[in-house]
Every structure is written in C-alpha cells, then in structure tokens.
Amino acid sequence: MRAACTGFTVLLAxxxxxxxxxxxxxxxxxxxxxxLLFLKGNVAFPASPLVAALLAQMILLVIARWVFxxxxxxxxxxxxxxxxxxxxxxxxxxxxxxxxxFLLRYCGLREVFRVPVANNRGCRSGEVLAGLDGALAAxxxxxxxxxxxxxxxxxxxxxxxxxxxxxxxxxxxxxxPDHNIRTLLGQCGLxxxxxxxxxxxxxxxxxxFERAVKRTLDVVGSMTAILFMSxxxxxxxxxxxxxxxxxxxxxxxxxxxxxxxxxxFEFRTMTVLEDGPAITQAYRGDLRATxxxxxxxxxSIDELPQLLNVLKGEMSLVGPRPHAVAHDREYxxxxxxxxxxxxxxxxxxGWAQVNGLRGETRSLEKMTKRVKLDLWYINNWSLGVDINxxxxxxxxxxxxxxx
Length: 403
Prior knowledge:
The chain is α/β, with parallel strands linked by helices.
C-alpha cells in the first residue's frame, strides 16, 4: 500500500486539522441551507431535523477521521504501509535527526538506501564523488523512484556538486528542509499552508502520463510490426543459417534507461560476436560482415529483433540509440552531458538517426553532434515528435546510409 504525502500526515494526526475540517463542513452546510431557503418557495422545510442531521454528520466525520488514524498507525507499525522508494543523500549532522519513520509519516517516502556525504575534505573530493556514484548504483539496484537530499541549506557548494553528479540520472531529486527549517516550521507546518516541501530541484524528463502514452505507442507499434513482419523474420533467420555457421541472433550488452545494462537482440551480420571491454565499431566495407549480413545491415533488417526489446520494456521505438557498454564508458569521459541520454529509454531509431547521424561514429566530434541531437529529443519530446521520427525513418532506410 502506498502513502500519499500530505493526506498521509493528516490521517496520522487528524486533531490539528479538526478545526479546519469542521469549519469547512459548517460553511458547506450554511451554503446548502441558504440555497434551500432561496429555492423552497412555498414549501416548508422543518429546521430541527435538518440541524440534527448536520450535527450527526459532523460527529460521524470526526469519528471516521479518528478510526482512519488508528488504522493508518496500525498499518505503519506492521510495515504494511509503503511509500515512494527513495535513496537519501545527506550530511551526517542532518541524517542523524532524519528517521525512516519521519520520512514515511511526513513525506510518504520509504528509504531504501542512505548515503552520508561529508565535505570536510572538499565538496569534490574523491570520497564525496565515490559516495554519489554509490547512490546512483543503489538507486538502480533497489528500484528507487527518486533521490532525497538532506543538507544544510547553507551548504551551497556541496548541493551544486550533488546536483551535477545526479544529473545523469532520470530520477527526480528533492531537497528536504534542513533541521533548522523543520524546527522553525514544525512537522505539520511542512505540509500545510500551501507549502510544497521537500523542494523539487530536478524533475523527471517525462511525466507519468507522458510515459504511459509513449509506452502505449511502443507496445502497439512493436506488436503490430512483429505480426506483419513475421515472414521477414523467418526468411532472415533461414538465410543467416544457410550463409554461415553460428547463432542467428547476436546479443550484446548495451546501456539503457537510468544507465542500466540490458542485452540487445539483432540478427547476426558478422563473423565476430564482440561483447568485451574493447569493441571495434562496424564500418563501411568491414571485412567481418558476412555476405547476407551486408544486405541485412544495409536494409536495417538486422535491427528488427530489437522489437522484442521494446516489448520487454528495455527499449522504445524512438529514443537515443543504445551503445555498447565499452563505448558508453569511453564517451562518458570525453563528452559533457553524455549521461543525459539515459534519461529516457533507448530507441530503435531516433532524432539523430533521421538527421544524418546514422551508423558509424568513429570520431568524437561526430558522436558529440549525435549526443546534442539526442538531448534535443529528450527536452522536446511529444507524441507528435515520435510519430514524425518513425515516418522519417522509413524514408531514411531507403537512402542506404547503413552498412
């Protein structure tokens, strides 16, 4: 069971809100009564039963809130109440006063991992950066939904260091009020009077609705393509097997959404099956390509098995092209903001591919241009953009730019 942030606080401690609740109820009752007096005409409404009914409803409302509070506390004690899974990053002095119970009760958050960062050796010390890398790895491992920062609000340099490091993650990043602010506002004051705390300092690239729309397009599009292209799948498999020995499907580790590794599927087009720390990119006239493989690569038929990756949820029809893990590690060092490509699922085709950057990227300059186009896509995503890219991809395949 998931907890909602503000409503959860009200359920656990309803007494401070009873006055506001009764006032709202009384105003509503007066409006209803006024409307009846205005509309009744010659019809008489007995006042005593109406007042008695309103008083009974108010009493029942207070009792219901009390029962809900008891039930919520029981669920909390039994561990049956869950919240959004978060990785908490903070200074030791702030983390000391921040319990898991507080986070669940007042923020609706379930802490799955905690990373203390001390900046006594400098905000960009190896210890701090290693801790942040550990937080990124823990978020992937535990399926966290966001990062929560517990820092003194005066630690601006440390905050900027953390923000910079977490920018490669697609997860939201939120900043809790520090101990002094929490003491000043009080626990209940953190989530009332229109305040929105914790403060969001990095939002997710796509909203939940946008992700649902994109996923719907992926599932419907990939299933339709597999259904209509199944004869082509069978023909490609037969010709690969007859042309050369070895597996029909080539599998290689790639880096996907949130920098998670996954295994990509392609029709085998080469005599090698590289998936190690050093991988040579395919290039025009590559002697490693088989006879059938050359045609499959030129026509992009070799990429059709990636529709299975789309169905599995590892890829999307449209998105930044996934690179081999070995290449990903290399480019991440040399290209600024390269990690932003992992804010969305990788795609079979993308904005860079329909703008002339399809195929080999042996030079760093060319890869930098591809990353720039990928980031434009992420920042400007819409359903219309995806449909436009899919339509343009059909024409791009016919231009014979692959090899």
